[in-house]
Structure formats: structure tokens, C-alpha cells
Amino acid sequence: MARDGSVVVPADPQGMTVVKKKTQSSRSWILFDGTGQGSLLDLDKYAIMHRVQIHARDLRILDPLLSYPSTILGRDKAIVLNLEHIKAIITAEEVLLRDPTDENVIPVVEELQRRLPRLSDSNQQQGDGKEYLGGQNDAEAAEEDESPFEFRALEVALEAICSFLAARTTELELAAYPALDELTSKISSRNLDRVRKLKSAMTRLTARVQKVRDELEQLLDDDDDMADLYLSRKAGSSSPVSGSGAANWFTASPTIGSKISRASVATARFDENDVEELEMLLEAYFSEIDHTLNKLTTLREYIDDTEDYINIQLDSHRNQLIQLELFLSSGTVCLSLYALVTAIFGMNIPYSWNQKHGYMFKWVITVTGGFCALMFLMITVYARKKGLVGS
To answer: Which PANTHER family match (predicted)?
Structure first.
């Protein structure tokens, strides 16, 4: 039984995949403790608020029925995390993850179960006193083992969302670049509609990546906001201190292979102005999400260049049509001139100069026809030279 009286069911990530969507409730949560053990919970918002001591407005951010941008909020005893499909509440001792049966959340569940337990705890479970043989390959694991619980959970969430957005960006690139190349070779309604849909998808994905990047940048620019995420340090400073000067939470957190003394670690962690550990963590994933945003920016520039190239082609064709229209108009003028002379001589009106000069009609018609033919020939040669008509 949970401490709030809710029913607790042991979590089975593999079995979650067969759960039907209609059985998924918006109240479904999974709880992870410090050992990485997960338990499914069915809690309403009041039970959640009482358990982690957050306000209703903070819990509203995690509502899947509402559309809120990516947000990382630091509260007194919890971190409210809303990163796309990853909606979680992290405390100094446990992690509450929403909708664990979602196909995009299941990898996060498995990663939390693997990385939340400390290295020393997993060694004790594996060997019953056997010596752990890791050597130099476990140096990074030892450093990660020294991180507070909330940072390990936060790192899993950041890594998951950065990998998810990077994968969506790669899929978009694989579909967009061939479509753009095909459009430049053949302009058709099908290709134009295909590129239009890809551009819309790119715009939406760019907005999502930009929001995650802005949230990380905002945290990095404010030391106070980063200090609010040190939940273990705040819990340690509020707990009774032993005679040796170390807090109760610190004595329960053994370090492995530490290159600095226990006293220096304790001093650094109790320094409220020291946010270097979290800053390094955020900077790593800020660089990754910024790289993803740069790839989307490059794709947008490629799309803009393709649009400019298509517009230039269309302008060229439009100019050719205008020149062809001018060519046809000139031919019409020539024929009109020839028809005008013929009409004048064909009028049933007596002319004094027409008497005894019957040859005048044939002479004028011949000269006018020759002049019109010469003018039309000159226009045709000019049109062929400009490529307006075929040879």
C-alpha cells in the first residue's frame, strides 16, 4: 500500500506494451524510489499535491489534456518536469512519471530503472559480498554515483527528450532532402504538396526544439533557478546535523572512487552558490539540443534556397511567356497592316487616281505583303535567337 492509501502494483515495463489505450487513465503514474524499483499508482491530483507538496497550478502543467510548452520548474521539495511526452515530478527520494504505458515513455521507464540505483547498491544486490570488478571502465559510473538522486533522474529525462527530438529531426531530414531535390528537377503539384507538408512538419518540430533549448538556456543564465533544483542539498540543510558536520542524508550516500575527500564534497554540496555540477549537466544537453536546432535551421535554409530557385525558374518561364505574347502581337500587327491595305482597295468607292491605273492595286498589295513578310521574318529570327520558339 502507498502512504496515501492508493493501490500499488509492481511495474513491469515489458507488460505495459500490451495495455490497451482505453484502459489508460490520465491518473496513471509510476513511482520510482532510490533503488530503481517501480510501482504503478492510480492517484488523483489532490493525492499527488499532498504527496510531493506542490500547487495545483504546477500540477496543471503535467495534464496531458492541456497543451503546455516544455518547462522545468524548481520548487521547495520537487522538480516539475514537462518535456514533450515526459511528464514527471522529481523529489529528493522518488520520481513520479505520468502515463508509463505510453510507447514513448516506456524507454524512459526502463532507463530510470537502470540508472536510478546507486552503483554500490547494485553491487550489493548482484554479488552477496563479491568484489565488483570494473576497473577504469567504471570511472564515469562512479562519478555518476556521486550525483544526487534528482540529478540522475533529471539526466535521464533530458537524455530521453534530446534523443527523441534528434531522432525526429533525422527522420525529417531523410524525407526532406530527396523531396527538395526531386522538386528542383521537376516542378509538379505532387512534389509541391509533398514539400509543403514537410515544411509544416519542420516548422512544428523547430518550435518544439526551440522551446526545450530556451528552457535550458534560461536555467543556465540564472544561478538561483539552478540552485532551486538542488533538492537533496535543501533537504540536508533543513535536517539535523551530526557532530561531524555532515547531514543525515549525506551519511546514507557513500561515494566510490572519489578523488576528493569526503569533507570537501560535503562543503561543496552545502554551498548554496555552487551550481557547477548541475551547470555542467545542463550544458551538455544544451549543446546536444542546440546541435539539433542547428540541423533544423540548416534544413530550413535549404528549403528557402529551393523556394528561391523555384521562384527564379517560374519568373524565367513567365518572362518567356511575355516575350512570346509580344511575338504574337507583332505578327498580328503585320497581318493587320496587310489587311488594312487590302480593305482600302476593296472598298466600293470611286477614286480619281484609280482610273486608268489598274496596276496600282497589284503593286501596292505586293509591296505591302513583302514588307509584312519581311517584318514577320525579322520577328521570327529574333524569337528563335531568344529561344521563344523552336527551330
So the answer is: MAGNESIUM TRANSPORTER MRS2-2-RELATED, RNA SPLICING PROTEIN MRS2, MITOCHONDRIAL
Confidence of residue 12 (pLDDT cuts 50, 70, 90): low
Helical ranges in the chain per DSSP H: 13-16, 45-52, 56-60, 106-115, 119-127, 139-145, 149-185, 189-221, 223-228, 231-238, 248-251, 262-270, 276-345, 359-385
- Asked whether the predicted pLDDT for residue 42 surpasses 80, the reply is yes
pLDDT at residue 198 above 80?
Answer: yes
Please calculate the CA angle 196-103-198 and round it to the nearest 5 degrees: 5
Given a contact cutoff of 8 angstroms between Cβ atoms, the answer to whether 277 and 147 are in contact is: yes
Inter-residue contact 368 to 345 (CB < 8 Å): no
**Integer Cα distance of 88 and 337 in angstroms:** 85
Give percent above pLDDT 70 in the chain: 68
Record the pTM.
0.70
What residues have CB less than 8 Å from 46, skipping those under 6 apart?
A: none
**Minimal CA–CA distance to 175: which of 183, 186, 163?**
183
Closest to 291 (Cα-Cα) out of 126, 142, 178, 173: 173
**DSSP class of 75:** -
What's the pLDDT at 19?
A: 41
How far apart, in whole angstroms, are the C-alpha atoms of residue 203 and residue 212?
15
Is the CB of residue 205 less than 8 Å from the CB of residue 172?
A: yes
The Cα–Cα gap between 84 and 159 comes to: 13
Cell of 50: 499532498
Report pLDDT digits (tens) over 107-155: 999 999 998 887 555 555 444 444 444 444 444 544 555 788 999 999 9
State the average pLDDT over residues 245-260: 37
**For helices 189-221 and 276-345, angle between their N-to-C axes, nearest 10 degrees:** 150
Q: Please tell me the distance from the alpha carbon of residue 334 to that of residue 374, in angstroms, as a whole number.
A: 9
- The mean pLDDT of 78-101, rounded to a whole number, is 91
How far apart, in whole angstroms, are the C-alpha atoms of residue 213 and residue 158?
Answer: 11
